[in-house]
Amino acid sequence: MKTYMAKKGEVKTAWHVVDLSDKVLGRAATKIAMLLMGKHRPEYTPNVDTGDFVIVVNAAKVRIIGDQKFSDRTYDHYTGYPGHLKQVPLAKMIQKKPAFVVIEAVRRMMPKNNIGRAMLKKLKVYAGPTHRHQAQNPQPLEV
After folding, report:
1. What is the rounded CA–CA span in Å between residue 61 and residue 96?
2. pTM for the complete prediction?
């Protein structure tokens, strides 16, 4: 008996809609990362992008567990100039760019290579309840 290995053109992708209203960020990010990588499929192959497209709505209403995380967790950006390290706390980033917080949480759970970056492009995040991918007929998914 031979082991089935998926090939690039043979994989059929689906579209899923995930509503993050009152969902915990870390737990939802793990489920989303698994869908993007394709680990929910029996034909999962590590060197082929077998994942699905995921649309995330209501990213602004995501929950963060732990009071200390709002003040301690920061998103860092270095401009390249000496002394210009920009640090934005999680509380401010959730108000300013809620989609970025969700994308970063999922990105850090993905493979750190070319396939991982290609998988991350299949993630669409929206701060509000509406999205523009109705033509793809996405199926709602509970995380």
Report:
1. 13
2. 0.93
